[in-house]
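Exercise 7.
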Amino acid sequence: MSGRLLLVCRLLMRDLRRRRTETVLLLAAITAATATLTLGLTLNEVADRPYQQTRTATAGPDVIVTPLATGQAALDELASMTTAAGVTDHSGPFPIAYSTMTARGKSAHAVVEGRDPAPVSIDRPAVTDGTWVRPGGAVVERAFADALGIRTGDTVSVDGHPLVVTGTAVTAARATYPYAGWHYPGSVLVERGGLVWVDRSDMTTLAGSRPLSYTLNLKLADPAASTTYSVGPDLATWQGIAYLNARLYGDARMTLLVGSWLLSGLALAGVAGIVAGRIIGQRRRVGLLKAVGAGPAMIAAVHLAEYLVIGLAAATTGLAAGWFAAPVLIRPSAGLIGSANAQPPALRTVIAVTVLALTIAVAATLVPVVRAAATSTVHALADAATPPRRRRWRIWLSRRLPTALLIGVRINARRPRRARLVTVNTLITTTALVAMLMVNTRVEHFDLGYTELANPRSERMDQALLVVIVVLCTLALINAVVSTWTAVLDARQPLAVARTLGATPAQAGVGLAVAQLLPAIPGVVAGIPAGIGLLAFVSTGEVQYPPGSWLLATALGVLLAVAALTAIPAMVTTRRPVADTLQSAPT
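Solution. The predicted structure, written as tokens, is:
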């Protein structure tokens, strides 16, 4: 047993040293999928940390009560809350007005809260620029100020009353822009809006004839006990506020998770292509091992061990890459302080990423490994390609095909599995590109009452989509290059034979390009409806379709890229003298 294990380890180390380029490509393909999955799974955890930091820095409340009633009725309702069981401290009630703020020609819903200049024990908003409230001034929640382009010293208008912006601040008592909880007094329908603090003495003037609403902040002996409160339009908990803040990253998380699915398929195709080429090159070794008494199990162990090691290495690399990239790619809301600090991934993330990496490695290698193990010793030593299946109708049809097309068809007939991998590669690439086109053609209506502003959720989703598309296109390019060069190296002798039978170098080169384009065409054709269906499946809103000309341009672009990647190695191959190619063939 120890002798067999030693043999497996020696062959493993030998293959890793001798085939470094292929090993790096395998590692990169699987790492791309594992790193993207790590980002998607850790997004919520990383994004939640700035809120926890803000909650600690501002003495955030556990429960926030804002009755639907107004005036004295609201104060009477809140009076009993301060002495409820489990309540250890409170601040407020603070007057609230649901108003309209105008700044730089833009008007938006604003929740205006009256505060005192002196700090309180619960909910002390942290001033990030300028100073705290004073009569005639306003402090704007920082994310809301960024959306409207407000700076300290600007003048804003709240329901027609001018106020000077004395500063910006952040709080954990309300969700950051645009989920500040604006609504008409007495209504349960919540609309988007931002938060503004003013001096309590200014609230009567700003409200005018409208009755004021009030809000009360409670601190509990056990913060986790806030989950026992009935959350509704009149009551919020710190867990609910954290959930609303996390919604900003919901679309980005879905984008990364879907991207990891696509990258997993792309990695599977790429790894399968590389593995198939490596095992084809190791057929003679399989025959030699069988000739000295190695059984199918031993042959399978020799091959699988190498790819399992690469899969584990890719899982580790992907976890590390996702871990370090998360704080850089995930930009916390401006309404929070702190940063998305990198902390070790959760155990469930480690398990999921490791399972994905090993699944890709095993799924891509299982079929060629089983075929190699089941190959007879004589056939393995002969190292012959798969002969095409000859049918009378195929022979009749091939006689009428142009020379270049006939060469391409015969190359794919020799290696049908590689042709299917080209189809999968172009299918996934086209699917992702079409989905990206549909996202970019969407028309959003993200208004805050009177003005359409940038949607912070869409901004984060676009950032995640850019990451996925760049990684996916890079991996697709690597797969195409590997597939093309593998096809070129494998087809050198058949092309040389075709040239001795009368085919010109140009026909041989075009035939090699046709061999790559033929399986790419069905992948591109199927990728267009697949991309539309994928976005329709994961989208929660109305699906908007890109113009047909965009889809056609995408399809032609993918096919032209495949043809361009094939053209260079094809030209190099066909310029080599036929005699040199035939003399280099193994006998």
